């Protein structure tokens, strides 16, 4: 009975994701239809088509990632992961994508801080969190990575300097396809990055939640310590 209930819940989730993705795809498809009927020159049309195709590719890839997380079992194999080295990697990628200087991604953690997890899964979760923080940061803002050891766990925080989120919607931001009508909205994205990050962290035996930092949003990760 428990297995049947899990399968039923999984099917409901999969159907909801498919419905949501279908809804999200209508917007770029509509823009493509308008572009094809407009008097754009060839260069402008190619630019628009390429932009919308990338938009749709990101949507499909993120939705599939979220869907696979519901069907996969296990943690994918765990190993000790250096938090400082992981932050160096994901912040370097974020700096390249955003054009930010590396100094805008400060890290305040001991050099020997390690958690137990799957490197690929945790790196993807961290990249999604960092990409979200950069997207909602003000000009010349920074995104910091801090944490402290609490027994057998590392409690970590990624903090931006953006407008934050209404207190009654702090949990909503982790639901798929949720984009709040607040100062943090109005940016490109599908509301999938934080959902993927939370599920990845949960599969590693950890927790992920958010609170307002005043200013900014602070996302907390609680992960098992390696040693």
Write the layout of secondary structure elements.
Blueprint: H1 2-37, H2 42-71, E1 79-82, H3 83-98, E2 107-108, E3 114-117, H4 119-135, E4 144-150, E5 153-159, H5 193-203, E6 207-212, E7 217-224
Parallel strand pairs: 2-4
Antiparallel strand pairs: 1-3, 4-5, 5-7, 6-7
Structure description:
The chain has 227 residues and is α+β, with helices and mostly antiparallel strands. Helices cover 48% and strands 17% of the residues. The chain is built from five helices and seven strands, in the order ααβαββαββαββ. A five-stranded mixed sheet has the order 2-4-5-7-6. The chain has a two-stranded antiparallel ribbon with strand order 1-3. A hairpin with a 2-residue loop joins strand 4 (144-150) and strand 5 (153-159). Helix 4 packs antiparallel against helix 5 (193-203). The longest helix has 36 residues, at 2-37. The model is unreliable at 181-187 (pLDDT under 50).
